[in-house]
Amino acid sequence: MFNSTEITTTRCLLRKYEEADREEFADLFTDKEINRYMGGKVESRVEAYALFDKVFGIYNGGLLPRRFEIWAIRIGGCYAGHFELKQTDMTEEAELEIVYMLRKEHWGKGIMPEVIQEVRRYASESGMMLIATANPENKNSLRALQKAGAEPGTYYNHEDGSGLKIRLNPHKD
Description:
The protein is of the alpha+beta class. Helix content is 27%, strand content 29%. It has one domain (7-168): Aminopeptidase (3-Layer(aba) Sandwich), CATH 3.40.630.
């Protein structure tokens, strides 16, 4: 299911992608430093454009009945990053996995914990808990997850190496 709900935090707006986001999406997805720890790396702008087009297929129900939501992160009206909330092979029945990337100029400013906390609130409204999978070497992401209320992770093996499955505590008002 795709829900087009916009999510607002103190500093950010998460909204559906628009065609005007294509170039900045490609910049983000092809930046090797940003994508260092991501699976399914995008190596070229052509691949990034194809992935961007796939986003609109998902918006149109291309992955039903699997839940898969995708937002552009905007700060002050400018493109700042990417966020996904989805069912994956790592999620259990009442779990959704988060995947995110943030432009480098926003790193270390508490943006991602803020976004994760609001997405957690949104997911909890439908009875879902959040998980993240992370490379144990990705200290920045692990720190953001910890600030957002993550529990210590458990190791798993994946075809491209080992990782951590991290659960985020349910949102409590």
